[in-house]
TrEMBL record, chain A:
Ranges for domain SUF system FeS cluster assembly SufBD N-terminal: 146-202
SUPFAM superfamilies, per database record: Stabilizer of iron transporter SufD
Stretches assigned to the SUF system FeS cluster assembly SufBD core domain: 211-452
A Pfam family: SufBD_N
Entry protein name: Fe-S cluster assembly protein SufB
From TrEMBL, chain B:
SMART domains (UniProt xref): AAA
Domain ABC transporter: 2-246
Source species: Deminuibacter soli
Protein name (database record): Fe-S cluster assembly ATPase SufC
Stored Gene3D superfamilies: P-loop containing nucleotide triphosphate hydrolases (3.40.50.300)
Coiled-coil boundaries: none
Length: 482, 255
């Protein structure tokens, strides 16, 4: 590609990160370091019951035995886990009775992020749990939801108020020993969201959690647990941003979803953590374990993710298709530019009969970024008539980036039908020229081509967020045409 | 409308256009013919601003402006339209969405307000009749999975939507059956008026039965070596290009 077009591409993919501001607020930290005292400190800060402290300590012991993974398609940066603080919370908490008691700085912060916490100002039909560093600030529309028996609160509150549910399901989908970061999270997780949809209830609004990392030298280890009881339905969305800081920050979350008989969970993510600057300095390490289990027959779990941020995105939202006639879906758009890295995909474990899964992954790389799809489709011996369809497309913008595909297929049942399609394409100069010739400038042309390319996935997002995601993609790729 | 003076252009070190001179006035239709590889499509690409080509000499004025100074999208906004020989496919972008963006980009450049959804729809309704384009093509992704003939129809439909001052049709007739050719030619004839101009690049005289040109030029080895009227096209059809080539070589000093 000629120099001029590379210049334009450069411009189009180097747009600035919009959410890079930080909030000055009085904070309380755990002293840096990872040890049993830190864990006891977190547990005490949150006035947790003893069973949970014991659970955390057990996880810590497991963690000490874990090895750092080495199979990923990028160089894992050295990280000193003893140097970071595992708990950072705005002072002036706890026990908020109403929004008036929330620190106005916090409200302003969320407002600036486009997430007004005042219910009157909110998007109608969306309830929000706002998590700032290690704590949940406020959860909106709780009363309205509780009228139909839905529990939507921070996981800290759920631990106190609904211990039977938490105890039953916490760690049931992602065991403490699952992997290095899941073990770490289990030991030190601070806050996150909890959702319970009772039997037969269709959640009347979108539930959403907004994660904001603000504090320096801290990590965010949130834990989310969503349980959809028989014949229920819920659509849940998480969004995330962080200030632009020179040092890297670790975000190691665990999300567990449980769908009982005939229940459906739709989980969408619009991930926009700070990606680092154009030279690859700073940015969030997003090392997350997300997994759902279709426990009951005819249940369904669907993951949709739009990943534009983070210096490194490393996660595989997965579904265990345990029940018969269950369905798992994974729709993903991962955009990387500058020196960003993404190694993402999914795992579909077919255990039940007639279970089916569908994977649509769209990777877009610009600049010097590396983007990998890694996915496992596993069919167990009892999963008669399991079906999977995988489509995995990569789009390259410019000639310095990379796209990689690592599909794994393991079938132990000869009635399984597994399809895998993969394509890699370069954003065509011809496509850009065609649109130019129709009066559309290069920046808009790239936005249009990319949005067309990912349309199939964006259509899976709740409406309000699909529009946001479209804009986000256009902004993200501003300056990346090449 | 368009003045090309002594235009030289090529790709990397390869010279393709070697001194083109052409004057197109408002209301005129020019046909450019010539054997394969003579530079016809390159001329269209250079005029539209495809960046693979470097212009090494000469100038091009479009409505008094230096065309070569403008970016490809600015050329389009100034009123230059190229109907592509091979229209590209853009999956996921509906024809409708693409047209709306393009029409409003062009309008905004001309300081006209964006069309409302209603105005846009009635414009579409009016123009799609010109090329007998079915509604389903509007909803489908741009050119994706269209047949060759459908793609070409879609090009002329866009031409109708944008109402350019100068339209260059790059081998729009190739690969068309006789019905599609007739539909497209009728569309062009109805769009033609005293203020706009057309340059038809073609291999075949056939198209010129339907769209009658004011001038026919023969392009050979990067130069226009012969200019005539419609009769020249008939003569070429009958005799082929060899006699024109010989004439061209006779004019040149021996090498």
């Amino acid at each position: 590609m000629s120099n001029t077009s590379n210049d334009i591409l450069e411009k189009v993919t180097t747009g600035d990160y919009e959410y890079g501001f930080s909030t000055e607020i009085d904070m309380e930290y755990a002293p840096p370091g990872l040890n049993e005292e830190t864990i006891a400190f977190i547990s005490a800060k949150k006035s947790e019951p003893d069973w949970l402290l014991q659970w955390r300590l057990k996880a810590y012991k497991t963690f000490l035995k874990q090895q750092l993974p080495r199979w990923q398609n990028f160089e894992l940066p050295e990280m000193d886990l003893q140097a970071i603080s595992y708990y950072a919370a705005p002072k002036k908490k706890p026990e908020l009775k109403s929004l008036d008691e929330v620190d106005p700085e916090l409200l302003k912060t969320f407002e600036k992020l486009g997430i007004p916490l005042n219910e009157q100002k909110q998007l109608t039909g969306v309830a929000v749990d706002a998590v700032f560093d290690s704590v949940s600030v406020v959860t909106t529309f709780r009363e309205e939801l509780s009228k139909v028996g839905i529990i939507f609160c921070s996981i800290s509150e759920a631990i106190k108020e609904h211990p039977e549910l938490v105890q039953k399901y916490l760690g049931s989908v992602v065991p403490q020993s699952d992997n290095y970061y899941a073990a770490l999270n289990s030991a030190v997780f601070s806050d996150g969201s909890f959702v319970y949809i009772p039997e037969g209830v269709r959640c009347p609004m979108e539930l959403s959690t907004y994660f904001r990392i603000n504090a320096k030298n801290s990590g965010q280890f949130e834990r989310t647990l969503i349980i959809a009881d028989k014949n229920s339905y819920v659509s849940y969305l998480e969004g995330c941003t962080a200030p632009s800081r020179d040092e890297n920050q670790l975000h190691a979350a665990v999300v567990e979803l449980v769908a009982l008989e005939n229940a459906e969970i739709k989980y969408s993510t619009v991930q926009n953590w700070y990606p680092g600057d154009k030279d690859g300095k700073g940015g969030v390490y997003n090392f997350v374990t997300k997994r759902g289990i279709c426990l009951g027959n005819h249940s369904k779990i669907s993951w949709t993710q739009v990943e534009t941020g983070s210096a490194i995105t490393w996660k595989y939202p997965s579904v265990i298709l345990k029940g018969d006639y269950t369905s798992g879906e994974f729709y993903s758009v991962a955009v990387t530019r500058h020196k960003q890295v993404a190694d993402t995909g999914t795992k579909m474990y077919h255990i039940g009969k007639n279970s089916k899964s569908r994977i649509i992954s769209k990777g877009i790389s610009a600049g010097e970024a590396q983007n990998a799809y890694r996915g496992l489709v596993q069919v167990g011996p009892n999963a008669r008539n399991a079906r999977n369809y995988t489509q995995c497309d990569s789009l390259l913008i410019g000639d310095r980036c990379g796209a990689h595909t690592f599909p794994y297929i393991e079938s132990k049942n000869n009635t399984a039908q597994i399809e895998h399609e993969a394509t890699t394409s370069k954003i065509g100069e011809d496509q850009i020229f065609y649109l130019n010739q129709r009066g559309i400038d290069t920046e808009k042309a790239v936005g249009m081509i990319v949005n067309g390319y990912v349309k199939e996935v964006l259509e899976k997002l709740p409406m309000e967020f699909a529009v946001e995601a479209q804009k986000l993609l256009a902004i993200t790729l501003e300056g990346s045409v090449g | 409308m368009l003045t090309i003076k002594n235009l030289f252009a090529g790709i990397e070190d390869k010279a393709i256009l070697k001194g083109i001179n052409l004057q197109v006035n408002p209301g005129e239709i020019h046909a450019i013919m010539g054997p394969n590889g003579s530079g016809k499509s390159s001329l269209a690409s250079v005029l539209a601003g495809k960046e693979d080509y470097q212009v090494t000499d000469g100038e091009v004025l479009f409505e008094g402006k230096d065309l070569l100074e403008l970016s490809p999208d600015e050329r389009a906004k100034e009123g230059l339209f190229l109907a592509f020989q091979y229209p590209v496919e853009i999956p996921g972008v509906s024809n409708m969405q693409f047209l709306k963006t393009a029409v409003n980009e062009i309008r905004s450049y001309r300081n006209q307000p964006a069309l409302t959804a209603g105005e846009f729809l009635s414009l579409i309704k009016q123009k799609q009749k010109l090329v007998e384009l079915d509604d389903q093509f509007l909803r489908r992704s741009l050119n994706t999975g269209f047949s060759g003939g459908e793609k070409k129809k879609n090009e002329i439909f866009q031409l109708a939507m944008f109402e350019p001052k100068l339209s260059i049709l790059d081998e729009t007739d190739s690969g068309l059956d006789i019905d599609a050719l007739r539909i497209i030619a009728n569309g062009v004839n109805r769009l033609k008026n005293n203020n706009n101009s057309f340059v038809l690049i073609t291999h075949y005289q056939r198209l010129l039965d339907y769209i009658v040109p004011d001038f026919v030029h023969v392009l050979y080895d990067g130069k226009i070596i012969l200019t005539g009227t419609k009769d020249l096209a008939l003569e070429l059809e009958e005799k082929g290009y060899d006699w024109v080539k010989e004439m061209a070589h006779a004019k040149e000093p021996a090498q």
